[in-house]
Amino acid sequence: MTTQKRSPVQLTEVGPRDGLQSDGARVSTAVKIAYIESLVEAGVRQIECTSFVHPKWVPAMADAEAVFAGLRKKEGVRYLALVPNLRGYDRARAAGCDAIALFTAASEAFAKKNINMTIDESLATFAEVAERAHADGVAVRGYVSTVIACPYSGRVEPEAVLTVVQRLLAMGCYEVSLGDTIGVGTPADVRKLLRTLLAEIGSDKLVMHFHDTFGMGVVNVAQSLSLGIRKFDASAGGLGGCPYAKSATGNVPTEDVLYLLDSLGYSTGISLDGIVKAGVGLAEHLSHPLPSRVHEAVVAGRVRIQHGDE
Ligand code: HMG
Ligand code: MG
User: Fold this and answer.
1) Among 44, 117, 118, 232, which is disulfide-ready with 122 (CB 3.0 to 4.6 Å)?
2) pTM score
3) pLDDT (average), residues 211-216
């Protein structure tokens, strides 16, 4: 039997932040910490733990300090938190966070609703935060929301996304995650977007962040892979959403992406069964089942076949 060389794909787990920020259930800090630790146990090496945003706007993330205080961090894992401004940065640093994600949008209407800033204002704010972060040795990731469409103003052109991505990279973001915030994109939209971006930016700087509202998440990951993208965000169990994009449902589930990646021979270092186990642990504390089809199939013990280089 020959062993195929597997090419690496980076999977960033966003469940504890995107997954829980707008879930109806109020999950306790202890459960959040156990969830993060179980995802890391499954092999996750980059994980969004929480966000240091205004607790009045996103009450589910109000315990950001306590989450960081309780985490037993593992060497080699990047524990990220979303930060919208200097106040958020100060809170994150005081909590011992050393990797942040700055988040804006490609549509003015969404930026205003989400962070109460124009795109230009957000980038001016982030430039100050990034300068402080670089001086402090803090890793800075970028996010651009509404890369395909905005819930308030409709379709977004790839050129608008490109400009914002370039400005985030210019301020030293090590990568920029591109959010199809409301999960309306199809492979045709992804191809159009990525053709524009990849003509100007290396694929190692770009991450795709799909929401699965119309069930296109996994097929959009496959389309992105075929265009050379090797970095994705995903959420265990398929939880997710955005309080400022009511029509968004969950992120593309980590389990479903892993099932695809394993079958195509890509390695992530993450165990599908480990992610399912983490989801089972969390699901007890939610008021609904997890949306992931793969999670459901594994838990139900449906027949599985070997994939990849076995
Ligand atoms: P604002 O009201 O414009 O802030 O909110 P401000 O600067 O005018 O300050 C007003 C008050 O808020 C002040 O307090 C500040 O200190 C306080 P006061 O002096 O009146 O007592 N304040 C804060 N308190 C705690 N933490 C802070 C903070 N900043 C100011 N960081 C702000 C602006 C950005 C803070 C607000 O709009 C906010 O928190 N928005 C939350 C947005 C959010 O979390 N959205 C969800 C995440 S984004 C997402 O899900 C999309 C993504 O997944 C990608 C995708 O799918 O597309 C990432
Ligand atoms: Mg999102």
Assistant:
1) 117
2) 0.97
3) 96
